[in-house]
Backbone:
């Protein structure tokens, strides 16, 4: 079967693409504005370069046409802390996808524990095994309602026993397959 994207509407494009490009990493991004901590998951997310250490995340708009809070905060403060999802916090990340007002904090509303490990950056989700402390790098203009944002990774937290002396990393992050979170298994 050949699928012709010019005949497929946005929802069905999303369903087919997100069911095919699997597993998708999830950036659970913590940002801050005027003391309000914001946290939201994003799956249009991937590393794009090691030097400079860059990641890209595409963030859309709210139903009222205003930028999602994460995007507004990144553009304003130039900082973002990317956290990762595991089986201990997957219930919380789903809640963070609910649209809240700009002055409402997902961290407070859903009672998510955070910890400050890097001065000058938003705190990380305490239950994440690793977190990336990033600065704004660039945005790209594309057609449609979504903004690809490039972030530069400046510092990374990782639990001590999840990285060895050869820098081999062992984190148990969940990925997204279609509409489900899935764990990765060794073959
Ligand atoms: C698994 C998952 C992946 C998501 N990926 C994206 C994404 O890549 N881009 C996006 O704009 N929204 C994405 N969303 C929706 C946002 O998380 C949602 O709009 C959220 O309310 C944005 O919050 P904010 O306004 O606080 O930034 C995703 C939701 C879920 C559950």
Residues:
């Amino acid at each position: 079967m050949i699928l012709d994207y010019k005949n497929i509407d946005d929802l069905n494009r999303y369903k087919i693409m997100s069911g095919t490009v699997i597993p998708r990493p999830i950036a659970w991004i913590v940002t801050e504005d005027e003391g309000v901590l914001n946290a939201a998951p994003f799956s249009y997310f991937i590393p794009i370069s090691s030097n400079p250490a860059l990641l890209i995340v595409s963030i859309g708009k709210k139903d009222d046409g205003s930028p999602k809070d994460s995007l507004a905060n990144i553009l304003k403060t130039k900082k973002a802390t990317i956290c990762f999802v595991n089986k201990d916090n997957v219930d919380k990340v789903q809640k963070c996808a609910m649209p809240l007002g700009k002055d409402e904090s997902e961290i407070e509303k859903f009672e998510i524990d955070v910890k400050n490990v890097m001065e000058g950056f938003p705190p990380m989700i305490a239950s994440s095994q690793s977190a990336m402390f990033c600065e704004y790098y660039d945005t790209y203009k594309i057609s449609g309602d979504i903004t690809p944002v490039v972030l530069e990774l400046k510092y990374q937290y990782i639990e001590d026993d999840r990285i060895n002396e050869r820098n081999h990393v062992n984190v148990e992050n969940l990925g997204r397959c279609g509409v489900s979170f899935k764990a990765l298994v060794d073959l």
The chain has one domain: 24-183.
